[in-house]
Amino acid sequence: MPDTRVPAIPASQITPEAVYRRRRELIGVGLASPLLALAGCSEAKAPLAPNLPKDSPDGFRTNDVQTRFADASSYNNFYEFGTGKADPAKTAHTLRTKPWVLVVGGEAEITGGFHLEHLIKEQRIEDRIYRLRCVEGWSMVIPWQGIPLAALLKRFKPTSKAKYVAFTTLADDEQMPGLAYASIDWPYREGLRIDEAMHPLTLLATGMYGKPLPNQNGAPLRLVVPWKYGFKSIKSIVRIDFTEKMPPTSWNTLQPEEYGFFSNVNPAVDHPRWSQATERRIAGTESKLFARRIPTLPFNGYARQVAHLYKGMDLRRWY
Amino acid sequence: MVLSRIDWRWFGLKAVAHALALAPALWLLWRAGHDALGADPVAALTHGTGDWALRLLLLCLAMTPLRQLIGRPWPIRFRRLLGLYAFFYASLHLAVYLLLDLGTYWAQLGADILKRPFITVGFTAWLLLLPLALTSTQAMMRRLKKNWQRLHRLVYVAAVLTVLHFWWLVKSDIREPLLYAALLAVLLGWRVFYRRKAAMAGRSR
Lengths: 319, 205
What we know:
The complex is a heterodimer.
Chain A: H1 17-38, H2 69-72, H3 87-91, E1 101-106, E2 112-115, H4 116-121, E3 126-133, E4 138-148, H5 149-155, E5 164-169, E6 189-193, H6 194-197, E7 203-208, E8 211-212, E9 222-224, E10 237-243, H7 250-254, E11 278-281, E12 294-295, H8 303-306
Chain B: H1 8-33, H2 41-61, H3 63-70, H4 79-102, H5 106-115, H6 117-134, H7 138-144, H8 146-152, H9 154-169, H10 175-204
Helix pairs in contact in B: 1-2, 1-4, 2-4, 2-9, 2-10, 4-6, 5-6, 6-9, 7-8, 9-10
């Protein structure tokens, strides 16, 4: 059982942000120098000027160059439809998104099964343009349509015991060919702390690029949490549970050393097997063959909106 | 006439082998030029060149067992060609990673090679293949004599590291690296089996 208590760490023990940010350069340069000599380079090239995001103050809309719909809908990690990134676009047509029942359970006054259409009808659909950073080191910029998760959750009147929100993806052999192989202990599960779930940036998407969500992108209802690695943004949700304890999540269960519960985008905390310092941005209409890597930003560029949620937490431990 | 000394049958077969070995590279290049490699072309090129390096390396390692199985020498004629193409794809793989993926982030390269086991292992495999490619000529074979074969046993280490490199990079679906690991195990296992058999036959004689 994961430790659910948020640690209280005295401020004196926290590395000042300026030092923390520079550590990566220092480590990088130190490690690189012998090899740079080998490669015939005399000095480390300074990273390119960081792509300071030109976002609206609330973070709802970024002005970063957007990803093409064709790219966002053909390059997906949705293992229920195959582990290759081109697989879901080919196989997800078997997903039946209507009718869709969302089951709500746990620590809330109102629970039960609800028809998605009825739930959505009473909500105002809002637009968001978010960066999406995959834990594998690539990123996209996607215009979403959906409802703030908080608006929906509040309707179920979560009790004071609701400290976390757990999400579950559909797991149906008939509709999902990828389930035949246990790449994950199905069904796929994700979770958020209640304050993360209630944050205005957290979106339940029903569409993208002004169209209904393609099946491969998680139709008819998916989560979008832009400051966390993409796998937190769980697709094709059939169940939402309010819980008192930190719920188990799929990637954390599979590889606890590699994927934490929080999984906030953090260039200073590497995946054990690869660096998270930079990313390949898949955006624009030109070929991405010669596109340069860009630096990854803390909280994927949403630090201003969400950093306060993690005040006092050692983000190296709570990765 | 000089022409008459060329064995046209072998010439034709070798030409076909070259064409087949080059085809994946040309196909990747064509798709790269037509923006047909999907959303993340750098990843597609990295994976495509890496896959073919591994496949050709395993095919190269299959030539000796094939010769022993069928009792004819012709598979050996393709061994060097396949080995060199494996090295060619491994070099493309490394070049794509260095030039297209990392680009100007040389600092990350140093950290990657030292800190990431799967990159350390992949880079080591390429380093081991390098001297094998350099000493693949007839002249080097003659010059190194017995040491040539000793040196070229490094290919077994390189193959194991290559499979490990693939295994360590996947997130959860190990089916593909498992398949290559199984093929490699068969190819290496065969050698152990064949040696034992040969040794026993020698003793009983």
